[in-house]
Structure formats: structure tokens, C-alpha cells
Design brief:
Helix content of chain B: 25-40%
Largest sheet of chain B: 6 strands, mixed
Oligomer: heterodimer
Shape of chain B: elongated
Largest sheet of chain A: none
Bound molecules: adenosine-5'-triphosphate, magnesium ion
Structural class of chain A: mainly alpha
Order of helices and strands of chain A: HHHHHHHHHHHH
Number of helices of chain B: 14
Radius of gyration of chain B: 25 Å
Order of helices and strands of chain B: EEEHEEHEHHHEHEHEEHEHEEHEHHHH
Strand content of chain B: 25-35%
Number of strands of chain A: 0
Low-confidence stretches of chain A: none
Structural class of chain B: alpha/beta
Largest interface: A-B, 26 and 32 residues
Helix content of chain A: over 70%
Strand order of the largest sheet of chain B: 6-7-8-3-9-10
Mean pLDDT of chain A: 86
Distance between the termini of chain B: 42 Å
Distance between the termini of chain A: 26 Å
Number of strands of chain B: 14
Shape of chain A: elongated
Chain lengths: 261, 367
């Protein structure tokens, strides 16, 4: 496993040499901040209206649990941004090593393919954490205001990492299949979009298949986290995707050696 | 140190390496010499554990590659055809990374990197990004990477390819320094290079060893030469009758040139073809024209051709012992296939066919 850390460290170092990393982190921070403030303003407005209605009529049509709703919306948006950004992060993970010929270095070094895959995954996860870090101060701001739900926030961050981990693992696998980073990126977008949104088709269908289809949806499981529900089932769900992605990547790297390099 | 048995690689139906068997002793330098597509890279990739072989065994330092891949890989330093570098890292960062994944213990890592920097003469660029380096330096980074963990076995795939002559000499010098401490396999297209460094040379083509020899014998047999082919007409002196005298006259005329070696004169119906050999680097062409014109002869053609690898291989394949060993039809087929292999890859052909070309045609005709 020592090797995995070496590879993860190198990966992270290479990320932060390229300007893309800074652009991605900045865009992510900027979009998160924009969503955060816009939605905050929106919910404050809604609750002001509700307050006024209660003052005038004595009741309101709005059923508001503002902190929970706000957090739910915010973290839902965060998951969309992840969906947008992570394929750009994972597209080159293995593809670049193949293109540069460094895969030949790695695979002729005394490390197991499993360590290589783990290292790549850890590196990307570390980058994801760096990317999420600038959103933390937003909640400090919320906490200063008094009304915040630390449990929901914590669960949502765990959800984001779980979701991101599953996306990275699958992106890593797609990357190991592709010799071209554009194809890798589009392939990953395809896989992740389908997996994320299959549940929206299920809500229309309304049949016994609903549960079945929902079960496969990233979104469905992720939303549980954003409601502050930390269930073992959802954690295992994402962990399974991660394990599957990493396992397939390892097999695929072994298969690369049988094909044209 | 290195023991390879019946090593075979098939890509679909194409056999890239055909049951290759060889041993390399500790401290020995083995050179692979072969044209494009001969199977040099494929062999090296199998020995280093990058490509799984279709058949055969590889043992390094007593460990079988299949049973103990990690032990074997720890003992090998490998420079692939293209140096496997991360352009965004500095040379030092890169070597540190390689040292780490090659299991150099933390306590020795810094010393190992410093030593590799020194041996590969990289100190002046050690804090530069690898991507910003010239090709020669990148190649040296590749070498530094191969030696950073002080492996007993070095496998170098065309370590001097795509370098300019000066860099080539430097890298060659570097490899000769590594000789002795390491057991080395290296591949190349360049004959002088292999004869300078290697203790033993394998000529490989189509995945098979065509010849094994010490470089001294090899270069004796195949001393590289330059060749100039001159076609001229001697007004009024044409005819079969006095061809002997004519040849003598032409020969003595050209023998006066400085630096000329063997001269062959071949009279045709209405022209004379003269082949002048000289040492590598001597160009006789500028002096030929004034000489011919000064004698009142007519110059019909003038072309230079160094004795290329192409012809060297042909010489080797159609070599006496080789022919004796193989049934004639197979020898012919081998040379014909070489001709095919070199069809596009070799040096640009000049207008006149030289010796090797003639043989080449003969080989194909025999099929
Ligand atoms: N991954 C692969 N898939 C299919 N065929 C391959 C593959 N790698 C090599 N070959 C084929 O195997 C043969 C040997 O190739 P190899 O790269 O070993 O030659 P080489 O001696 O290294 O040539 P060069 O001097 O050009 O480097 C070639 O005909 C090549 O086309
Ligand atoms: Mg090659």
C-alpha cells in the first residue's frame, strides 16, 4: 500500500501543477458560493412572505422548514456540479499514463496493479476533498446566524464524498478503457448521467419497478444523505460502486497489457 | 543473470517473437540489433514483465518472472523506447517518485536520487520541469530513472534513438560507464554503437536470432564504408577489344584520388561504371567530377551511398556459414524478407544500385 500513497501523491502534485486544477477548484468554489447565496436569499424571502401571511391572515400556505430545505437544495446542486466536474478530473487518470508511456514504467515497477488503482483513486479523492474544502466556510457563516443543522451538513458532506467516490471509481474505469481523453470524458459523462438520473424516469412510471430502478440511481441514494439520513444501506450502496469500479479498473489494466500499448 | 527460454509472443496470427532462447551472464552487455519490427521492443517488454508472453520463461537472478513478478521487477531498470516521464514534474521530483515506487528505502532515497542525477549528468537541470527539457536530456532522465534503484539488470530500448550525434556519443559514454556494475541488454539500429558497448550482439529479424557474434568479429566482417558510384563514357574508346586496358586506365586515374579505398571498374557496352569505396565520413564526390572532365571523359552519373544497415543485414543473412546452416530456399526467403522489411525503412536509395541491392534482387528472384 506504500506504493499507492506514492502514486496518489504524484497524482495530486501533477494536478496542482496544471492550471486546470486551479480552474476547476475556482469554478467549483464560485458556483457553490453563488448557489449558496442565491438560495439563501430566496429562502429568506419565502420565509419573510410566510411570516407576513401569518401576521395578516393568521396562517400560511407555505410549509417551511427553512434550514433543512435550504441544505437539501444546496447539496443537491453540489451533486450536480460534481457530476459536471469529476469526469474532467478522471478522464486522464489512466488514459494519460498510457499516452505518455508512463504506464510502462508503473507496470514494470515492483507494485501490484491493485496498488496502482488504489493510488489513482486516493489521489482523485484527495483532489475532491480539496475541491470541497472552500465550501466549508459557508457553513461557518450559517452557524454564526444560529439556525443550522450540523447533523444534516455532516451527513451531506459524507454523502458528497460517497457520491464523488463512486463517480471517481467509475470514471477511473472508463479512463482505463480509453486511449483518448475526449472519449474518456464523454464516456464517463454518459455512464454517470444515466446512473444519476434513472430515478427521474421511475417517478413517472409508478409501478413495481420504481423501487428497483430507484435502487440503481445515484441521486435517489444521495438525497437521503442531504435529508440528514445516514443509513448503512446508502453507504454500502456507494461503497459497492467504488469497489466495483476499482475492481474493473484493475482487470482492465491487466487486460491493456494484452492489447496494443 | 538473465535466462530466457523459448520466449514467444504472438499478436493474433503474427508471431512477433519466435521462441527466443538466450542467457546473459552477470556484468555482460548484450546488444540486440535489428530492423524495424524485428521484435526487439516486444522481447524487452516481455523480459521486464510489461507484456505477458504467449509462451516461454524468463528468469532474472534466479527468480521466475511468472511466479515472482515483484522480485524480478525490483531487480530491473528499464528504459522503454520513449522515456516514461511526467512532464509536469521536475527532474528531481520525478526521480524521487521513481525511487519510491521502485522500493528504495526512505533513508537511502535522497542519496539514490543524487547518485542518479550525477551518473546521468542531470545536475544542471535537476530543478527544471522534465517537459521543458531537450530530447537528449529527456533521454538522460529516462536513463536516470532506470538506474535510480541500482538494479543489477538494465534493459535499455534504443537508448540513443532520436538523439543528435553529440548527444548520442554522450549517452553511449554513459552506458559504457554503467557497464560492469550492471548486466545490460540494449537494442539499437546502429551498428557502431553496439560494437562499441556490447560484449555480444544478437542480430534479430522477424522475431528470430539471425546471428550471434562478438562485435569485433561483426565489425570486421562489416566494416562500415562509404561508396560512390560513378558512371562515365570515354569518347572513342568503346569496344570489347581493349576493355582490359581501359579498366586499368580508369582504375589508375581514380586511384590518384585522396582517401579512396577499393575500386571496382565495370565496363558496359557504351559506358563504364566505377565504384569507389572510402572510409566513413570521406566524401569523394567533389573530386570525381573535375577528374573525369579533366581527362576528357563524359560524366553520366554520380551517386553516393554509404554501406547501410540494409546491406549489412543482407551481408549477414547471405553470409557463408548462415547459408551453410540453412537450406538454400530458406536462406533466400530470409534475405527476401529482409529486403521487404527494409523496403521503406532503410536509407533513401540512390539512382544506381549498389552491391547489396543486386543481391537483394537476386534473393527475390529466387522465390
Ligand atoms: N501491441 C501490439 N499489437 C500487435 N502487434 C504488435 C504489437 N506490438 C508490436 N507488434 C508487432 O510486433 C512486431 C515487432 O514489433 P517490435 O516493436 O517488437 O519491433 P522492434 O524491433 O522494437 O522495432 P523498432 O526497431 O521499430 O522499434 C511488429 O511487426 C509489430 O507490428
Ligand atoms: Mg522497438
Amino acid at each position: 500500500m506504500r506504493h499507492a500513497f506514492a502514486i496518489a501523491r504524484r497524482e495530486l502534485r501533477s494536478f496542482f501543477v496544471s492550471p486546470i486544477a486551479y480552474v476547476v477548484v475556482t469554478i467549483f468554489a464560485f458556483l457553490s458560493g453563488a448557489f449558496f447565496s442565491n438560495m439563501l436569499v430566496y429562502y429568506v424571502k419565502q420565509s419573510t412572505i410566510a411570516d407576513r401571511q401569518i401576521a395578516l391572515v393568521g396562517r400560511s400556505d407555505f410549509q417551511l422548514d427553512v434550514p433543512t430545505m435550504f441544505l437539501g437544495e444546496f447539496f443537491k446542486n453540489e451533486s450536480f456540479i460534481l457530476l459536471l466536474v469529476l469526469p474532467l478530473l478522471t478522464m486522464g487518470l489512466i488514459t494519460d499514463e498510457r499516452r505518455k508511456g508512463t504506464l510502462e514504467l508503473l507496470l514494470t515497477s515492483p507494485l501490484r496493479p491493485g496498488e496502482l488503482v488504489a493510488g489513482k483513486f486516493l489521489g482523485a479523492m484527495a483532489f475532491l476533498s480539496v475541491m470541497l474544502a472552500p465550501t466549508v466556510p459557508l457553513f461557518v457563516f450559517l452557524a454564526l446566524g444560529g439556525a443550522w443543522e450540523p447533523g444534516v451538513v455532516l451527513a451531506s458532506y459524507i454523502g458528497l464524498l460517497a457520491l464523488g467516490g463512486a463517480q471517481i471509481a467509475l470514471g477511473l474505469f472508463v479512463s482505463s478503457l480509453c486511449e483518448n481523453i475526449l472519449i474518456s470524458a464523454f464516456g464517463t459523462y454518459g455512464v454517470l448521467l444515466i446512473l444519476h438520473f434513472v430515478d427521474t424516469s421511475a417517478t413517472i412510471a409508478r409501478s413495481i419497478w420504481v423501487d428497483f430502478i430507484n435502487f440503481f440511481s445515484f441521486n435517489f441514494h444521495y438525497l437521503n444523505f442531504t435529508r440528514g439520513v445516514l443509513s448503512l444501506g446508502d453507504v454500502i450502496y456507494f461503497a459497492t460502486y467504488m469497489a466495483l469500479g476499482l475492481f474493473l479498473t484493475q482487470r482492465s489494466i491487466e487486460a491493456i497489457r494484452f492489447k496494443r500499448s | 543473470m538473465i535466462s530466457v527460454q523459448q520466449l514467444t509472443k504472438k499478436f493474433g496470427r503474427q508471431v512477433a517473437v519466435d521462441s527466443l532462447t538466450f542467457e546473459v551472464q552477470k556484468g555482460e552487455v548484450l546488444g540486440f540489433l535489428g530492423p524495424n519490427g524485428a521484435g526487439k521492443t516486444t522481447t524487452m517488454r516481455m523480459v521486464t514483465g510489461y507484456l505477458p508472453p504467449s509462451g516461454g520463461r524468463v528468469r532474472i537472478d534466479g527468480y521466475d518472472l511468472y511466479d515472482h513478478p515483484i522480485e524480478v521487477k525490483r531487480r530491473i531498470g528499464y528504459l522503454p523506447e520513449n522515456p516514461p516521464v511526467y512532464p509536469e514534474l521536475t527532474v528531481r521530483q520525478y526521480l524521487e517518485f521513481v525511487a519510491e515506487i521502485k522500493d528504495v528505502p526512505v533513508s537511502r532515497r535522497k542519496a539514490a536520487v543524487d547518485r542518479a542525477l550525477e551518473r546521468a549528468q542531470l545536475q544542471e537541470v535537476r530543478d527544471k520541469r522534465v517537459g521543458k527539457l531537450s530530447k537528449g536530456f529527456k533521454q538522460r532522465v529516462g536513463l536516470g530513472q532506470a538506474i535510480v534503484h541500482e538494479p543489477p539488470v538494465l534493459i535499455l530500448d534504443e537508448p540513443t534513438s532520436s538523439l543528435d550525434p553529440k548527444q548520442r556519443v554522450e549517452v553511449r559514454h554513459l552506458i559504457s560507464q554503467l557497464k560492469g556494475e550492471h548486466t545490460v541488454i540494449l537494442s539499437t539500429h546502429i551498428l557502431p554503437e553496439v560494437s562499441e558497448i556490447a560484449d555480444r550482439v544478437f542480430i534479430i529479424n522477424r522475431g528470430r536470432v539471425m546471428a550471434v557474434d562478438s562485435p569485433a568479429n561483426l565489425s570486421d566482417r562489416l566494416r562500415a564504408r562509404e561508396m560512390v558510384t560513378v558512371q562515365l563514357r570515354i569518347p572513342g574508346r568503346v569496344g570489347p577489344g581493349d576493355s582490359g586496358k581501359l579498366c586499368e586506365e580508369v582504375r589508375s586515374a581514380f586511384a590518384a584520388l585522396q582517401g579512396v579505398g577499393d575500386i571496382t571498374v565495370q565496363p558496359d557496352d557504351d559506358a563504364v561504371t566505377v565504384k569507389l569505396e572510402s572510409a566513413v565520413g570521406v566524401d569523394l564526390r567533389p573530386e570525381v567530377a573535375p577528374l573525369v572532365v579533366g581527362r576528357g571523359w563524359q560524366l553520366l552519373g554520380l551517386a553516393a551511398d554509404s554501406l547501410s544497415l540494409e546491406q549489412i543485414f543482407l551481408t549477414l543473412v547471405s553470409d557463408e556459414n548462415e547459408e551453410a546452416r540453412l537450406p538454400p530456399s530458406r536462406a533466400e526467403r530470409a534475405s527476401a524478407s529482409l529486403a521487404e522489411a527494409f523496403g521503406e525503412g532503410g536509407k533513401p536509395r540512390t539512382t544506381s544500385q549498389v552491391d547489396g541491392g543486386g543481391k537483394l534482387m537476386g534473393g527475390s528472384a529466387g522465390l
